[in-house]
Amino acid sequence: MIYPQEIEVWYILPVIRKELAKELLNHNLSQKEIAIKLGLTEAAVSQYINKKRAALINLDKKIKEAIQKSAERIINTNTNIIKEIESINSLIWKDKTICKIHSQYDKTIKNTCNLCFE
Q1: What residues have CB less than 8 Å from 36, skipping those under 6 apart?
Q2: Comparison of pLDDT for 28 and 4, the residue scoring more
């Protein structure tokens, strides 16, 4: 059995970072600037951008839109990155995307997860 918190650490947080890095790159930030803003190494940013990390998970349109807005706040207001990532993570829990990912990686779960919501 894989705990939901492990799903967050192994899959959710990396995919959020990947999508934020891609979005910041779309706003013409360099990999170095992205690394500084996200608190990552340049190598990690490179791996996210080049689909070597967090490549197996796709987020739905609603979450990607939230990530786009977060990226804009990061650029324009220098907002707290932890606050932005936590906000996106909360959305992933709220719309039960975490259940889809959990059931994808934990074969002890049949069909859809819902373990955390019972």
Answers
A1: none
A2: 28
